[in-house]
Amino acid sequence: MPARMPLNRFAAALAGAIALGALMGAAGPARAEEAPRRTLTITGTGEITTHPDIATVETGVLTEGKTAADALAANTKAMNEVFKGLEAMKIARDDIRTSEFSVSPVYAQPPTRPDGAIEAPVIRGYQVRNQVTVTVRKLAELGATLDKLVSLGSNQLGGISFGIDKPEPLLDEARAEAVKDALRKAKIYAGAAGVALGKIVTISESGGYAPQPVYAMKAMAMRDSAPVPVAAGTQKVTSDVSLVIEIE
């Protein structure tokens, strides 16, 4: 025969069950009555225009020889002259970085035989390419630098990219302008819709500053122009933000 629960313990358990049920019943309807939060998502753009203060130049030497060793020796001699010239122009070693170095065979185009067959190409020599990226921090001397590179034997000149050495302060200004732009548009939408704006829920950023490349003329065309005329133009530092704002 099962033991009976003492009366006082039974009463305590029953009271606890009633209290728990009342608590669950009170919490349930409250959650069901919660209305979904209404929000407005809006984007803004900030833009700061400034003049660049640095430029990067892709330059180097391409040499050929009957053997790979001959081509390499000629390339090394020419590149050493380029490095000496850059040092004489007070360009720091930290502002010179090797971006490409390659040794490759050069093939002679074989003649077509009378029967139309094409013979296998024959190696007639080797080619060595040594390319460096140079950062010029004195834009007033950029034209003279380009002319000097060509006169020193640099026969490979790629694009010129202008940039900003320390863009972060300007980017912060663009961020602030982007938020102002987003809030301005949010107020217009809220006013047109007849609602009031609440607190900002989230802010996210996309985009940002990027240097703008400017392509240079061919290196051989620069020999008759000293110093080479170069226009840096202006740079735009931009920031795009997205705001999620509560609607009251």
CATH fold category name of the largest domain: Alpha-Beta Plaits
Question: How many strand units?
Answer: 8
Low-pLDDT ranges? 13-20, 216-225
From the coordinates shown, what is the CATH architecture of the largest domain? 2-Layer Sandwich
Q: Sheet with the most strands? A: 5 strands, antiparallel
User: What is the arithmetic mean of pLDDT?
Assistant: 82
Can you identify the CATH superfamily of the largest domain? Protein of unknown function (DUF541), domain 2
* Alpha carbon gyration radius: 36 Å
What's the CATH class label of the largest domain? Alpha Beta
**What's the order of the H and E elements?**
HEEHEEHEHEEE
**In percent, how much strand structure appears in the residues?**
25-35%
Percent helix range? 25-40%
Shape assignment:
elongated
What's the number of domains? 2
Structural class by secondary-structure content = alpha+beta
Q: Order of strands across the biggest sheet? A: 3-4-2-5-7
The count of helical stretches stands at 4
- Terminal Cα separation, in Å? 65 Å
Organism: Parvibaculum sedimenti
Keywords: Signal
Protein name: DUF541 domain-containing protein
Pfam family, one: SIMPL
